[in-house]
Queue: 4 jobs
Job 1
Amino acid sequence: MRNYRGVIIEESLKDKGVLRNVKVLKTEVEKVTKQSNTPYLKKWTLHTVAIKEDDADEIADRISKSLDPKHSWYADFKNERWHYIVYRGKIFKVDRRSKAQYEKATEYGISLGIPSYQVDFSPLVKTWERTGAKASEEERMLRIARRFYAKLPKFPDGRIDYTDSEVAPVMDVFVLHEGKILLLKRSNGVGYYKGMWSAVSGYIDELKPVGEMALKELREELGIERADIGEIKTGRDFRLRDRRIGKTWIICPVLVSLKGRLSIRLNWESAEYRWVRPGELKDFDTFPGLLQSLKALL
């Protein structure tokens, strides 16, 4: 049975009784910011919930009827195949492989006045979770990015500027093929860790799902396209303090499996690359946290 997991914001419910019909795995409280788009509230109470597969249709209907009719809200929950996106009076059961179905659910949310970055659903990411894991890493990292978006300056193109921030969320994107990991030697043109070996790395500086951000980095740094990829998995993030440069990294590990061996096209950020077995990483001068990132995925 493929049970579902998702998030319900308690303040979105007119009838909170529906919470008795689901299993609450975790509850977090977030302070409302400008990006929350709910100035009439001071906080969000986010319940991570589990829903039995056989109950999914009934629970979706109950949530839809329970949502606050005065404001535009949604709740969502998903398993490996299906993603329920529930608005008041409207339910989308989306095949997670279908970009077109996601677009319809997103367009409907925007038509209700919900900001586009809050309904930026992604069909590309299969969230990886160990048994007993907590909230979806995809959703968690998006919430972290929103916090930084609300308080940090932006570049002209809208990306978050972490230049003067002591804390920054980043991705370690590992490319896997036939049991080997792609290692990149950082060029002398990058800002940090020149000459060290790494995975594909980048700031989480846009309000987009981690998988979508990872695809962008792969395209820019290696010339890898979505069609070349079989699966994307995300692991649990962790914090790492590098006192040498005065930064604390919130590192989100990502594993991308290729369908076949490709011709890698490096951009200016990398000087060379090698395919290595995971156990060989310890023989390289890797940048901080890389071994811990890979361990979180394998």
Job 2
Amino acid sequence: MHGVVRRGDVGILYDPARAHERALASRWRRALQARRPQWIVRRNYPYRGTNDGFTTYLRKRYGDDAYAGLELEVNQKRVQDDEMPAADRAAIVAALCDALARAARPPQGARSATSGGSEAAPAASVGKAGLFSA
């Protein structure tokens, strides 16, 4: 960007002050590194995950208990002919699925709690890479 070469292949952006986002970003990063060990996967790079944008709006609207807003930044060197290779897209999606599956499992011995009648957050938001849809 602006003549500066980025030192990373993928950046996972999140708000480190939000425990759910911090944990999900960490799980996604580990799962992605397991699938693409040659990639440099960084947290809150090349931007801070707290910058103003759609995820910030949704954080304010739905709160920490109902919404975890992560964004994915992919370095353009991973794009060929204006498209990311299908195998790389699949690795990103599979890693996210693994991270979400681990988040959905309650700790052993934990009982689930039901929430009140609060408004539900959207299932997903589309990031700059356009890899996911709600």
Job 3
Amino acid sequence: MNQIEKEIRENIREFRIIDSIENTAEAHFLFPADFIGFKGHFLNNPILPGICIIKTLLVKLMIWLETSVKKQVYSCYQNSSVQLESNPSERILASDSIQIHLSEMKSIKFYSQVQPGNILEFESRVVNEAHSPFSIVNSKVTCNNMKIAQLKIKIISDPIIYDNQFNL
């Protein structure tokens, strides 16, 4: 896990599934003044670079997928007739075992700047492509009900998980 991803994970304030059937979830992130993304961008007028917003969305999607996989593994463990020493969901996600990779930026628009101390709300909907490892993510980013960005990206998970990967 790189430093920026680590800091994004440390600054998540809330994550929740809105609708598991529609594959929608939201998360809130706080970007404090000492956040690595503000360093050098810009001197005496820190503004969060757009790439940090994209990276935050990818981290949010990793958390969502980790939650989903853990829940599915735990459910299988609970319903299994085989006795295991411990819950495999506790080990399955050790050491960055799941990654989300950006495959394509279909459309990304930035509307407003993000300053230190802002809390961004990411609301996303994932559409899984049938029999494909790819998913399309539509995401809206706001701060105090002000539109910050609109993103439509194509992602793939590693390891590859086919169909319904974000369903909970």
Job 4
Amino acid sequence: MDRRVIIAAGHGGGDNGAVARGHKEAAECVDIVNRTVTKLRADGRIETVVVPHAFDLREQISWLNARFPQHESGYALEVHKNAGGSTATGVEAWYLTGSTEAGNKAKSVLAELARVSRLQNRGIKKDVDYRGGSLAWVRQTKPWAGLFECGFITHDHFNNDLYAEGLFRGLLKLFDLRDQAAQIYRVIRRSGVQLGAFSVRSNAWTTYLGVMGDAVILNREGIDVTAEFVNEFGDDQRIVGTPREAAGVIAGTDGPGEVIELDG
């Protein structure tokens, strides 16, 4: 497969898609795509082609197939948001029924999307199981293709940079590439709101303390490194308990630790 991703935002052509909590699916998808493209182009190793946002689905597929008519022309990825269910949450991916390789490609990207977004991995789905019986994006596009649901618009967080980072990491994995970017640390509240992203570790720690530890610290790969920070900056912590106990509380295994005042 050519080292190329052709990426599209779902619900183009004036269709809002699902609407919930003051957010429109189409606008969220465009934002996630734009952020993913920025990361891919900054990395520079995967050719990145964006399907025009103004196109509807039929126009998207026609435009894509005219330019990339071969099965090995790259990976066609479409971004969506899920909706429905009183408690439904998580990320998932759809692939062409009957193609084990298409399923494996979608599974590879999805694993990183779930890990970085910190949402439940709902797994890969055959397009024949979609309520309409098929999905045009994975069935009619000529290159390899996958459709990715980046959280539930009805319940999950709107930290689109995490979804974009997850897709970026997943695409690196798909093309067997190692991340060359400098390490950054994201401070994420339990609600999913990102408080900041830092290259300087002490700045991440200061932000973490600013919310009394009601957060986690993730590295660029989406791995929880809170315990590592607690061990490094433990003399400066305001959360009661040993560093590892505090980190366990922060990671969400229990409620937030008791806060004590510092002298001075």
